[in-house]
């Protein structure tokens, strides 16, 4: 039987989710500058005092919203199979997923935070979030590399820096190409940079 306290807690969770949803909409349509508690309260059909109850500043709200979206993305990640039959094809698939997430997922919102950091505390918190995102990237690579070991394509895992090359090269291409990474460019990154580096360490 559901208790009264559980019902109140469920309403609280739903309210926070509605506020996050309003935050996402404003970030994606109008940008960070549109985020203020009065506007969020209106968009989420609640009062400004309720928003203040949960967060001290608009940055705190956006940070929490991005964290929630990253958590959802991580849960989805656990249900995805990145093995495409060969190490090369799996790396391309991981790259495609990362590009999609960077353009449409929580990392797009995450990039907005970087441009709005104004003090050391915000930089530290955002740095912690980046470390968590890096951990998710490592998890994808470890899955792909483990399958490659099982198929006999490689004999051992490369170091952490090599596992992250794919994502770093994609980010670098984003900057050079105004956020665009073509399929051809991704395959070049895999064929000429990432795969040779992984195979090199496998032979050591």
From TrEMBL:
Domain HTH tetR-type: 13-73
Database matches in PROSITE patterns: HTH_TETR_2
Source lineage: Bacteria, Bacillati, Bacillota, Bacilli, Bacillales
Protein name: AcrR family transcriptional regulator
Keyword Transcription regulation: no
Keywords: DNA-binding
Location of the DNA-binding region in this protein: 36-55
């Amino acid at each position: 039987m559901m208790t009264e306290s559980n019902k109140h807690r469920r309403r609280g969770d739903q309210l926070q989710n509605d506020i996050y949803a309003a935050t996402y909409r404003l970030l994606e349509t109008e940008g960070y500058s549109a985020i203020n508690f009065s506007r969020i309260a209106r968009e989420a059909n609640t009062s400004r005092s309720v928003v203040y109850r949960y967060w001290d500043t608009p940055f705190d709200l956006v940070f929490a919203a991005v964290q929630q979206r990253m958590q959802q993305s991580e849960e989805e990640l656990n249900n995805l199979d990145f093995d495409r039959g060969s190490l090369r094809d799996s790396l391309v698939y991981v790259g495609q997923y990362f590009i999609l997430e960077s353009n449409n997922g929580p990392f797009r919102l995450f990039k907005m935070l970087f441009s709005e950091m104004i003090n050391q505390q915000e930089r530290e918190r955002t740095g912690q979030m980046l470390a968590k995102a890096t951990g998710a990237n490592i998890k994808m690579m470890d899955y792909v590399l483990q399958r490659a070991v099982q198929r006999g394509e490689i004999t051992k895992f490369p170091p952490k820096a090599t596992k992250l090359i794919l994502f770093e090269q994609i980010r670098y291409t984003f900057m050079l190409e105004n956020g665009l990474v073509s399929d051809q460019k991704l395959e070049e990154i895999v064929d000429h940079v990432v795969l040779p580096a992984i195979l090199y360490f496998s032979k050591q």
